[in-house]
Write a structure and sequence with these properties.
Layout: E1 5-14, E2 17-25, E3 31-38, H1 43-57, E4 67-72, E5 75-78, H2 80-94
Parallel strand pairs: 1-4
Antiparallel strand pairs: 1-2, 2-3, 4-5
Length: 100
């Protein structure tokens, strides 16, 4: 899952769990898509879990400009609050020495 930044996250439900579809982008512009099934069923917990997991993996450097959209009633809706939660969890896990 090597990428320079997390570009987009799509949050939906699958089998009673939260599914996170990630779009990652490298410095060359190449995009990679991957799917994570988060433990638990609450979207806020799922995106914070994903932020921590991405930070621990150490392969994503930038999440600050992520666009996070949630599936609601068949539509994709931007959710800035969930995006902030992901960014905060990522930064907290990385620690202050990794912040630019």
């Amino acid at each position: 899952m090597r990428a320079d930044r997390l570009e987009q996250v799509f949050v939906g439900r699958r089998g009673g769990r939260i599914e996170l579809r990630l779009v990652l982008e490298s410095a060359s512009g190449a995009r990679t898509r991957t799917t994570l099934l988060a433990p638990g069923a609450a979207p806020d917990e799922a995106v914070r879990w994903a932020g921590r997991a991405l930070a621990r993996a150490g392969e994503v450097r930038d999440v600050d400009r992520v666009r996070l959209r949630v599936e609601r009633g068949g539509e994709l809706v931007d959710d800035a609050g969930l995006a902030r939660g992901l960014v905060e969890a990522f930064r907290a896990e990385r620690g202050p020495e990794d912040e630019a």
